[in-house]
Amino acid sequence: MSEVTTAEFNEEGKYLRKIRSFVLREGRLTKGQAQAIESQWPTMGLNYSPAPLNLSDVFGREADTVLEIGFGMGASLVQMAKDAPEQNFIGIEVHKPGVGSCLSDAAIASVTNLRVYHHDAMEVLEHAIADGSLARVQLFFPDPWHKKRHHKRRIVQAEFAELIRRKLKIGGVFHMATDWEEYSEHMLEVMQAAPGYQNQSSDGTVVPRPDHRPLTKFEARGHRLGHGVWDLMFERIA
């Protein structure tokens, strides 16, 4: 799991904007991770600026862009980028070893359609991503904050859903996944109430894992132990 942001929300789910809403989690880099950042950042790294990115300039082409919030160590994001060379991918992660690992894997896989932020997801989304520019936003296995008194810290809240909707194109999809069933129910409740979205589930609940989301080692182990994973996909319709 990846701690995508330390931003907090109040009881009504409103994002509490603070002067400094996050702390970059440096962690201890392995030699390989440090080398990957040094060698790959000039081509794959995105330095945060409050001005919206020009995606065609960043990637050198016009293509659908997928953004992942909190990619952890980056293995599945690199796999997705490798499997879909016709799409652009942007990953955001505050944990520096994860950034290094992602860049290392991307270099080994010769992936050229991936760019990475080492920054707070909320700031990037609010300021660096133009409205209506994304084909898909991915949020996989965010911190479930499973204690009831911590539910307000969950990233999937009403205001966050509206922020994601603004960044998606019409027809773009917000794809969430969690291994906590109660959090999936919370996500479903928030998203069903969020204006401008349509659930892609045929029965109005969750969807089967789509082919574009790789099965992680963590998830495969969970399946063997009888643990579930719940995917939700909501399309922007307005």
Morphology: globular
Low-confidence stretches: 1-6, 17-21
Gap between N and C termini: 31 Å
Strand content: 15-25%
- Please state the CA-atom Rg, rounded to the nearest Å: 17 Å
- Largest β sheet strand count, sense and barrel closure: 8 strands, mixed
Q: What is the tally of helical segments?
A: 8
**SSE ordering:** HEHEHEHEHEHEHEHE
Within the largest sheet, what's the order of strands?
Answer: 1-4-3-2-5-6-8-7
Q: In terms of structural class, how would the helical and strand content be classed?
A: alpha/beta
Average pLDDT figure:
90
- DSSP E strands, number: 8
How helical, in percent, are the residues? 25-40%
Binding site for S-adenosyl-L-methionine: 68, 93, 120, 143
Family: Belongs to the class I-like SAM-binding methyltransferase superfamily. TrmB family.
GO molecular function, one term: tRNA (guanine(46)-N7)-methyltransferase activity
Keywords: Methyltransferase, S-adenosyl-L-methionine, Transferase, tRNA processing
Any key phrases for this structure?
single chain, 238 residues, alpha/beta, 8 helices, 34% helix, methyltransferase, transferase, tRNA (guanine(46)-N7)-methyltransferase activity, tRNA processing
Could you characterize the architecture of this molecule?
By secondary structure, this protein is an alpha/beta fold. The protein has helices at 31-44, 55-59, 75-83, 96-108, 121-128, 158-167, 181-193, 217-224; strands at 45-46, 65-69, 88-92, 114-117, 134-140, 168-178, 197-199, 230-236. The longest helix is centred in the first third of the chain and has 14 residues, at 31-44.
